[in-house]
Amino acid sequence: MYRSHTNGELRLANAGQEVTLAGWVQTVRKFGAITFVDLRDRYGITQLLFGEELNKQLEENPLGREFVIQAKGKVNERSNKNLNIATGEIELIVSNFTILNKSAVPPFTIQDDTDGGDDLRMKYRYLDLRRNAVKKNLELRYNVGRAARNYLHNNGFMDIETPFLIKSTPEGARDFVVPSRMNPGQFYALPQSPQTFKQLLMVSGYDRYYQIVKCFRDEDLRADRQPEFTQIDCEMAFVEQEDILSMFEGMVRHIFKDVKDIDYTDTIERMTWEEAMWTYGNDKPDIRFGMQLCNLKFPSHTFTTKESIASLINGADFQVFDSAETVIAIAVPGCAEYTRKQTDEITEWVKRPQIGMKGLVFIKVNTDGTYKSSVDKFYDESRLKAIADAAGAKPGDLVLLLAGTEERTRKATSELRLEMGKRLGLRKDNEFRLLWVLDFPLFEYDEDGNRWVARHHPFTSPKPSDISTMINNNPVIENAAEYLKHPYANIKANAYDMVLNGNEIGGGSIRIFQRELQEKMFAALGMDAEEQQHKFGFLLGAFEYGAPPHGGIAFGFDRLCSILGGSESIRDFIAFPKNNAGRDVMLDAPASIDDKQFTELQIKLNLQ
Amino acid sequence: MYRSHTNGELRLANAGQEVTLAGWVQTVRKFGAITFVDLRDRYGITQLLFGEELNKQLEENPLGREFVIQAKGKVNERSNKNLNIATGEIELIVSNFTILNKSAVPPFTIQDDTDGGDDLRMKYRYLDLRRNAVKKNLELRYNVGRAARNYLHNNGFMDIETPFLIKSTPEGARDFVVPSRMNPGQFYALPQSPQTFKQLLMVSGYDRYYQIVKCFRDEDLRADRQPEFTQIDCEMAFVEQEDILSMFEGMVRHIFKDVKDIDYTDTIERMTWEEAMWTYGNDKPDIRFGMQLCNLKFPSHTFTTKESIASLINGADFQVFDSAETVIAIAVPGCAEYTRKQTDEITEWVKRPQIGMKGLVFIKVNTDGTYKSSVDKFYDESRLKAIADAAGAKPGDLVLLLAGTEERTRKATSELRLEMGKRLGLRKDNEFRLLWVLDFPLFEYDEDGNRWVARHHPFTSPKPSDISTMINNNPVIENAAEYLKHPYANIKANAYDMVLNGNEIGGGSIRIFQRELQEKMFAALGMDAEEQQHKFGFLLGAFEYGAPPHGGIAFGFDRLCSILGGSESIRDFIAFPKNNAGRDVMLDAPASIDDKQFTELQIKLNLQ
User: Fold this and answer.
1) Under an 8 A CB cutoff, do A165 and B549 touch?
2) Closest CA to B500 of B440, B560, B572, B557
């Protein structure tokens, strides 16, 4: 070993001991004839004191930032203690030292507040990873993984590795494919998830499976997506939805306690998908704050169980509302005194292309009991009051109303709610609120193909009460215009998402385990028997030999870590992430390959 | 939950309780009006008793092998106890049952001694995985992984994920490549190991890294290779060879104790590569038994420190030995009484193409003090005695001698030794002998390119004493015929392999951490500066910013598990293995892909 102790280890009790340290030079400070060096490693920082007798050697071998050195000497009690760091009561009086490796001047400072921009830090990721901020993230990631493993182990789950070179069955996202040299003209695919394998393991009787595993999706990357990402992937046999919810509430509580020392003892709320869409405009609501949606107007085919209160706004000759399919309001607390400039700015915000609304209506609920609105000329005070009351506004609140087509308006109101929550400091990094969203629709309608697509994936079971509806009806949509009247439109999935602070951190379902139902599902997605057999023959086969009821869940490990770490970006929690073009700028990958590789793989480029 | 207890859980203490069980029907036996069913799950088997009152229901819903059922009833003490299984003191008196899923008759029996052939079992792997023999292997694998993780965690190692979509830098084995849709004409490669990433993590100061990780090599598959395989991959900073050896001896001892309850307290033997080749003809010797090689004759350029004893065989007019480059003997214990038929059979064995020798000479060391040999007419008794003594033969032993060119003869003698060890029962599945092999040559000579190749990999450091030889000499080989005289031919690597029962289970090295030395290494392998920069610019760059001394090791996880499980085949320890053509016969992968995928990836086939 190049050291007897790490740089985070020495305490007052070690005073007088001869020790050897090794690490990186964080800072060099000269005080007269004496030189102080802060020596850093993963475990901490120790102050080294170089006395006058070492000056000649230091002049001949000057130390610079990020040099790697080894220093021997005696541990000494510091006169000037630094109680902010664990080793701050001691220093090392250096008797001799060796430069193990020099360092060029780093392209950015290795500090929490670095002067390096994103591109530079990604190119020199090996230096960026030295920064304490990044190191803390990767440590958190390690701790979350270990806590999950321990919990799952203690609950009888087995880590079983599933293959990475599998078969391409594009259904939903695009596969990455790998040409097979030994099987010319054929390709493997990288798994988008181990879904079918974990189901086969249930058929094989492994009962409780987990894996922390890389998955791959060749999608156009949005700001915070990666082509390779990691899942905590789990499956259980002989379970119903409630068993899964309870098991994985336990896992998340365990992670909170183990990693963050947070006792999450609150009941974890549950909400149906319909309720989430109605109340928050979103299937992964951030419930750290209220500001719930007031659905003033909505089309007759959505939320059929809810009562319409369109009379509150209709018939005032305000064409925007009268002609709108949907009008939704939120009451923003304490913002009645916003200036014209401020309401204009919010209006501009909702008109941005990402939000896409045409404008914004506001009602100020003044503390003196009066109302002031941008649509004063259409609505008198009593009507303004009725609308504000419906939105749950209190004196001092600002009611914001959006109008337009159903989907866009709902989404925009949800975005506006989140934005106002952020501006008002209602979305705190250190507050955590978990939520289960349940009872998703099993299918979505695909207009292009006039067919159904699986909202979750094709292996998700319908609710037990909907199985007969699925079996006994023809999935074909005869009348595209009236697809909502097809019995499949109302089938609910036996699926669940776990939401943390407005982010989906996990999702899963009870699976189909009967061949007949699985075939019906594939048929609904437009696969004929031949295609079913070609793509999923192994799974249909497995269901013939005693498949047990089973279900599971997968957590987005990168996302879970980033939220627990209080960050918006998953990239900060991945050691070697890729950029938005799917490139690793440090490696400069992907890259061209040799002619020999093309020849061996029997493929060639076909650039357009 | 579909059950209140598992099938491995109920004991006499549960007698009288009302419980619900679920699982697979292992057997159905009728005794008069009563039916017994053995119900199986991952945890065990519980006997169910169906009384007369259920006969009508059983007739209407007959149970078959591998049916999945749920059964409710009362736990009862068995009159006829089966003390071989944990639940053997009780049975469940079934009050009612439900068939959760039927099963077709499986294509082979789900038993330890199955009647299914290899191909059939691979096609229906999900059924093969139900067999106890396979389940035990995967449980062992899980236990080995968990023991390794716990040991590494307790020693300060952090699990850090490295990327799977990297850059192709073919050097040694062939890469699997992945076309990038977002970067047309460019390809990712799948990692052959996380080697450079773990080194970067050391440069980044993570100090102790590990990962249990999939790696990929596109090689022609021998009997027991897989295109994707798993490594326990580890790296440490500020270490020398001795630190690594001691840390990972500890890990393997921990695994032995934790998984096999074996206290491996013996000192783990160490042997140089030269000594291993001299004594066992092999760089991964099985030291569970002796039968060491007696090197009667060898070329002057190999084992230059060893004394030649060729005079024992030379000059007897036996042309085969006189003209041979190499003659090696082993003394097989207790086989002096082999019949002519038996010695002939061994002769045929060494003449098989896989071994490739022209013949075999034997000397029987009879217990009466006489000698009998196949070359009696060339060697008198005193010479036969001298040869047998040199080979360490005792009365009753059979000395076997092989002659030919150095490499083939040494390899053949090693194979013969292993074969005789196997035949004599000296290689016991339940005996474990660990060994470190040290001081490998750093380079091998590549005749085709008249250049050096790295024996381990290009990141392995030479021994500290050989660094100046490497730096101060030109790696170019001016005179191909005399490459052995090049200073690089004698450079030893700072590398080590861990060998268990004749299998390499782990290998690693202290790494180069200085840019100059790394450049020299790349140059020795024939890479010019431009190629170095293109392929490994990131690593050379990292070495400029304070790279610490570091080293590591990787264990072949599949192999380690198979040896601990007492099996020759790694395939038995992989949930979903591929066959020798790299195919997953269950999935039928690899397979063709859609035209749309070709178009999006901008590649096409170029079949020859």
Assistant:
1) no
2) B560
Question: CA-CA distances (angstroms) from residue A214 to A163, A172, A439, A497, B606?
Answer: 11, 18, 28, 20, 31
Q: Do B606 and A608 touch (CB under 8 A)?
A: no
Domain ranges for chain B: 12-101, 133-264+555-597, 289-427, 441-492+514-547
Interface of B with A in 60-79 (CB under 8 A): 66-68
Q: Is the dihedral of CA B566, B567, B571, B576 positive or negative?
A: negative
Q: Which of A19, A238, A557 to mutate to test the interface with B (most CBs of B within 10 A)?
A: A238
The beta-carbon neighbor of A589 closest among B125, B166, B221 is: B166
Residue of A nearest to B159 (CA): A142
Q: What's the whole-model pTM score?
A: 0.96
Work out the minimum CA distance from B197 to partner chain A, whole angstroms.
9
The CATH-assigned architecture of domain B133-264+555-597 is 2-Layer Sandwich (3.30)
Q: Is the pLDDT of residue B171 over 70?
A: no
Separation of CA B400 from chain center: 29
Cβ atoms of residues A13 and A67 within 8 Å: no
- β-strand pairing of B326-332 with B398-404: antiparallel
Q: Are the Cβ atoms of A166 and B227 closer than 8 angstroms? A: no
Pairwise CB contact (< 8 Å): B590 & A183: yes
- ipTM score here? 0.95
| Residues pairing with B452 in the sheet | B445
Asked if A235 and A552 count as a contact pair (C-beta separation under 8 A), the reply is yes
Is the Cβ–Cβ distance between B475 and B521 less than 8 Å?
no
Write out the H or E segment, with its range, that includes residue B170: none
pLDDT tens per residue, range A366-388? 999 999 999 999 999 999 999 99
CATH architecture type of domain B289-427:
2-Layer Sandwich (3.30)
Q: Mark B591-604 as b/e (b = at least 16 C-beta within 10 Å).
A: bebeeebbeebbbe
Contact B255, B432 (CB under 8 A): no
Give the gap in angstroms from C-alpha A172 to the nearest C-alpha of chain B.
Answer: 14
User: Between residues 566 and 585 of chain B, which touch chain A (CB distance below 8 Å)?
Assistant: 574-576, 578, 581-584
Asked if A574 and A586 count as a contact pair (C-beta separation under 8 A), the reply is no
Residues of A in contact with B139 (CB under 8 A): 158
User: Is the CB of residue B31 less than 8 Å away from at least one CB of chain A?
Assistant: no
Please give, rounded to a whole number of angstroms, the shortest distance from the CA of A477 to a CA of chain B: 26
How far apart are the C-alpha atoms of B126 and B134, rounded to whole Å?
11
Q: What's the pLDDT tens digit per position in B485-496?
A: 999 999 999 999
| CATH T-level assignment (fold) for domain A12-101 | OB fold (Dihydrolipoamide Acetyltransferase, E2P) (2.40.50)
